[in-house]
Amino acid sequence: MLSDEERAEIEAVLPHYPHRRSAAASAFRIVQKHRGWVSDEALADIAALLDETVEQLDARATFANMVFRRPVGRHVILICDSDCCYVMGYERMRDHLERSLGVALGGTTADGRFTLLPIVCLAQCDHAPAMQVDADFHGDLTPERIDEILARYE
Amino acid sequence: MTDDAIRIGDPDERPLTGAFRADGRPLDIDEYMAAGGYEALRTALRDMAPGDVTQVVSDSGLRGRGGAGYATGRKWSFVPMGADAPPIKHVVCNGDEMEPGSFKDRFLIQGNPHQLVEGMALACYAIGARTGYIFVRDQYDVPAALIEGAIAAAHERGLLGEHVLGSDFSVDINLHVSIGRYMCGEASAMLNALQSDRPNPRWRPPHMASAGLWSRPTVINNVESLCCVPAILRLGVERWRGLGLTDEGGTRVCGVSGRARRTGAWELPVGTPLRHLIEDLAGGMRDGARLRAVLPGGASTPFIPADGIDVLMDFDHMKQAGYGLGTATALLVDDSICPVGLTLNLLRFFAQESCGWCTPCWAGLPWAVDVVTDIEEGRGRPEQLELLEELCWTMGEQMCFCDLAPSATKPLSTSMKLFRDEWLQHIEEGRCSYRDHGVAGGDTSSLGGAAGPGPGAGGPGPGGEA
User: Fold this and answer.
1) d(C-alpha B66, C-alpha B228), whole Å
2) What is the pLDDT along chain A (154 residues), one digit of tens a residue?
3) Does B45 have pLDDT greater than 50?
4) Cα torsion at A93, A96, A100, A105 (round to 10°)?
5) In Å, how far from its chain's centre is CA B386?
6) B320 and chain A: CB distance < 8 Å anywhere?
7) How far apart are the first and last CA of chain A?
8) SS3 label, residue A55
């Protein structure tokens, strides 16, 4: 069941589109904001609300890389693996993150605190190497700076 | 000269960024209006027919800043107008800035979101659209919030909504935040994404100007292209064109990333030599690094050798020289970087982001990744270089449904040409000599990057202290 809040937020974006089904991307983002991920049940609820089939909606969700169809940690780390960050030391930053979190890319820490994912260019290449944690951008990374940043996320 | 002094100057010489605040905070609506903001919209609604706006944009010589360089006014002119035209049309702003190496659209939105909103309103007026969509990528939480705030503020002042400034023109601008994938930045795929269809590119015809979003006539323009429109109308065609150093005219946001003394974005006259951007504005390389090549405008552009940087940065000069301007955000590749490893990084990106629609792309790119992985990891064979050249042909422009795979061949083919010796060395020695030294992917440990300011500081990248 979608919560009243989720339902109200989704209905608020419906007037932006001529068809209910076109609000799917917004609906995914809203549900994911509240729950962290989009379960099969939530997806079916969204489909019912938007007059869309579950299959169509899931096809849309699984084409996208930012709709999480499995649970993630409380915070999602997106480490940029594109060319500018590669040049400025991406591999070292990735290795440091994997080592200090004890998970590989795609993994979630045992305490459920972080999920570590790769992301394409975050478009702040003048601050490479870069990552994003939840909605926060962090650039000019070094292993020491990564440690400081992660300590801020409970 | 400080970085701020480079960025902040005479608003008329840098019409897109001249009014940006030195502290990096985005302009609010009052500050933008004090700098002449929304005057172009006011003037257009009062004194110009929609077709006049399109004509001015055509005469300005503005070419799309997303990378392809298609003439903006020409694009608009294909939209049916007049009494027999379809009543519903759309303008879509492409703010899906996922081209690796490009950060100019974020720079423009975070400096002044209202400039984009005014550009959208003018584009809607020019083609007779009632509704516009600003499509931004996921991860653009900050730009998205700024755009939402700017749209709301413009509504309050009667600059959007019903009867804009008391005229007959009504317009609504909506923000749409993507759920990810590079493919959504391809114009026709973006329309599918907006409709909530699978974001494959569409076959043309029909062209989007006649049947685009929800089959309505649609114009799709990059963030920077739309940001140029208010400036063009405010300054007039002659003054706008006069800002450029070459025939194309106008200004353009250019960026530098990589191991430069100063990284960042600068609004420059179109036609500025690439050397000026790299050596004077970015201050050249730092920490003893030596420039070997430049990826001038995103992952989809060919490598330029270090001795080729006297080229002028406009579409035609870059093309004549055999390069590509793309997004005009240059990645400087220095001599600590393995060119094979960097090429592999680029190919992995394209292979991952292929939508899977056409065979040369979905089959060719992973194949190229496998082959280059072999070479980079010391299992390469000489005949594999010929195979890669053949793959570049197979993934060429005439072979594919969209530009994704052809784009991937540009850095690949130029890397194999420019760095031929090193590709051969990988194969002959069966190893990557950079990786053996532990710096294959670059290494910031000795480069003093730790003290660089974060994004909130709005400052330049690390290394500017030298």
Assistant:
1) 12
2) 999 999 999 999 999 999 999 999 999 999 999 999 999 999 999 999 999 999 999 999 999 999 999 999 999 999 999 999 999 999 999 999 999 999 999 999 999 999 999 999 999 999 999 999 999 999 999 999 999 999 999 9
3) yes
4) 70
5) 32
6) no
7) 28
8) helix
B18: its two tokens: 């001249």
**Taking CB atoms and an 8 Å limit, are B441 and A135 in contact across chains?**
no
Q: What residues of A are in contact with residue B264 (Cβ under 8 Å)?
A: 126
B295 lies within 8 A of chain A by CB:
yes
Is residue A41 within 8 A of residue A31, CB to CB? The reply is no
**0.95 surpassed by complex ipTM:** yes
Domain ranges of chain A: 4-63, 75-151
- Contact at 8 Å (CB) between A37 and A68? yes
Q: How many Å is the Cα radius of gyration of chain A?
A: 17
Of B106, B196, B445, the CB nearest to A124: B106
Q: Which CATH class is domain A4-63?
A: mainly alpha
- Whether residue B451 contacts residue B462, with contact meaning beta carbons closer than 8 Å, is answered with yes
Q: Which of B176, B295, B455 sits opposite A127 (nearest CB)?
A: B455
Q: Is B461 on the interface with A (CB under 8 A)?
A: yes
Query: Is cis: bond before B302, omega within 30 of 0?
Result: no
Could you tell me the end-to-end alpha-carbon distance of chain B, in angstroms, rounded to an integer?
A: 13
Domains of chain B as residue ranges with CATH:
3-240 (3.40.50.11540), 251-334 (3.10.20.600), 339-436 (1.20.1440.230)
Is B345 in contact with A142 (Cβ distance < 8 A)? Answer: no
Please give the radius of gyration of chain B, using alpha carbons only, rounded to the nearest integer: 22
Contacts of A29 in chain B (CB under 8 A): 177, 179
Cβ-contact B266, B342 below 8 angstroms: no
The answer, yes or no, to whether the previous bond of B296 is cis (omega within 30 of 0) is: no
Residues 355-414 of B with CB under 8 A from A: 355
Which residue of B98, B178, B259 is in closest CB contact with A121?
B98
B246 touches chain A (CB under 8 A): no
How do beta strands A136-138 and A131-133 pair? antiparallel
Rounded to 10 degrees, the C-alpha dihedral B191/B194/B195/B200 comes to 50
Å from B283 to nearest chain A CA? Answer: 14
Task: Check CB contact under 8 Å for B329 and A125.
Answer: yes
* pTM score, whole prediction: 0.93
The Cα angle at residue B43 between residues B209 and B45, in degrees rounded to 5: 50
Whether the bond into A71 is cis, omega within 30 of 0: no
Q: How far is CA B157 from the centre of its chain?
A: 31
Decide: helix, strand or coil at residue A80.
strand
User: At B92, is the secondary structure helix, strand, or coil?
Assistant: strand
Three-class secondary structure of residue B52 per DSSP: helix
CATH class of A75-151: alpha beta
Q: Which two tokens stand for residue B119?
A: 């550009």
Give per-residue pLDDT as tens, B55-76: 999 999 999 999 999 999 999 9
Q: Does A140 touch chain B (CB under 8 A)?
A: yes
Condensed to tens digits (0 to 9), the pLDDT of residues B358-412 reads 999 999 999 999 999 999 999 999 999 999 999 999 999 999 999 999 999 999 9
Flag whether residue A105 sits within 8 Å of chain B, measured between CB atoms.
Answer: no
